[in-house]
């Protein structure tokens, strides 16, 4: 089959379109013909080598964390899917490879595609929607009446997180540029802050949850708007000791990770709030719940641009500009 192959790590390294062995559905796996795949900053970070300590893939390998397609085969023990089913997924770590014509995915990572969405729309959702779900529903347990701050509201995670937080009954604030204020307001944001001209710490206080995808001083400043007992949850780092333990890191790496997040954890404790790092995981059961919310009208995908399969490197370059509103998708 044809696939985009990363031959070596390197910042901005182009992916090579070439022949790759056809996948085979093993026990508990489902073979999917990929119709559309979404791009994520995680793909760029892995390509650049930034995630080697966490996800040590060995080149050559195929990138791609989001897909929608049609089941073309099932392995032994599979019971929930059959040939012809339309599905979507975020394959689990070390089983990625959505920038290809086909992929074998663990049955537990798959869910039926939302019936109201196209393949392109469905492919845009898994990673960002699972991230939003695992932050807001699992980690933060957002409930009606809570106040939630979501940084970078016009981004892939932000556009879904705003909608999910509103569905959960929260008051939602977000940061974005003035040009995207109408977009995030339409998604449900109650307070929209222009990060270029306004200081969110001067406008917000007493918040229950902050979801941060930013890596600059914004993370530290976000502690100021939380009330005692509040939660600052980062999806961009620095990772914390709980994450290191969950990843099964050795003693030395656990110490390194602890040092990386020591300052932010110490300041959070001083303010009587909690800091944690979340690295989302594949979960077909959660995806099925997300699909139900989509089909009910509670969530909708936001797609910036769709590229052809043979224009993947162009799509990666566009993603790197940071200007995308929502998701960037490739389609076959």
UniProtKB/TrEMBL annotation:
InterPro entries: ADH-like_N, ER, GroES-like_sf, NAD(P)-bd_dom_sf, YIM1/Zinc_Alcohol_DH_Fams. Residues 12-330 form the Enoyl reductase (ER) domain. It comes from the Bacteria. SUPFAM superfamilies: GroES-like (SSF50129), NAD(P)-binding Rossmann-fold domains (SSF51735). This is NADPH:quinone reductase-like Zn-dependent oxidoreductase. It comes from Caulobacter rhizosphaerae. The lineage of its organism: Bacteria, Pseudomonadati, Pseudomonadota, Alphaproteobacteria, Caulobacterales.
């Amino acid at each position: 089959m044809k696939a985009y192959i990363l031959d070596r790590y390197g910042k901005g390294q182009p992916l090579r379109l070439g022949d790759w062995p056809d996948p085979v559905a093993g026990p508990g796996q489902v073979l999917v013909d990929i119709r559309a795949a979404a791009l994520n900053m995680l793909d760029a970070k892995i390509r650049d080598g930034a995630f080697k300590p966490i996800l040590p893939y060995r080149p050559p390998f195929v990138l791609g964390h989001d897909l929608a397609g049609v089941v073309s085969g099932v392995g032994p023990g599979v019971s929930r899917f059959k040939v012809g089913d339309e599905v979507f997924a975020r394959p689990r770590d070390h089983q990625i490879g959505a920038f290809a014509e086909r992929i074998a995915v663990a049955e537990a990572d798959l869910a039926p595609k939302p019936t109201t969405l196209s393949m392109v729309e469905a492919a845009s959702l898994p990673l960002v929607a699972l991230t939003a779900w695992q932050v807001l529903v699992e980690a933060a347990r957002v409930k009606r009446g809570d106040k939630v701050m979501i940084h970078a509201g016009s981004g892939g995670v932000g556009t879904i997180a705003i909608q999910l937080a509103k569905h959960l009954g929260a008051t939602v604030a977000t940061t974005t540029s003035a040009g995207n204020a109408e977009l995030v307001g339409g998604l449900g944001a109650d307070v929209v802050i222009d990060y270029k001209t306004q200081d969110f710490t001067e406008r917000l206080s007493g918040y229950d949850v902050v979801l941060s995808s930013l890596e600059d001083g914004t993370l530290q400043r976000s502690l100021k708007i939380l009330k005692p007992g509040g939660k600052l949850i980062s999806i961009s780092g620095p990772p914390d000791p709980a994450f290191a333990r969950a990843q099964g890191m050795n003693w030395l790496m656990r110490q390194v990770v602890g040092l990386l997040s020591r300052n932010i954890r110490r300041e959070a404790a001083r303010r009587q709030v909690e800091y944690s790092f979340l690295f989302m995981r594949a979960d077909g059961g959660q995806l099925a719940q997300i699909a139900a919310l989509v089909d009910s009208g509670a969530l909708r995908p936001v797609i910036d641009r769709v590229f052809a399969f043979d224009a993947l490197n162009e799509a990666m370059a566009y993603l790197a500009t940071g200007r995308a509103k929502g998701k960037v998708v490739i389609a076959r």
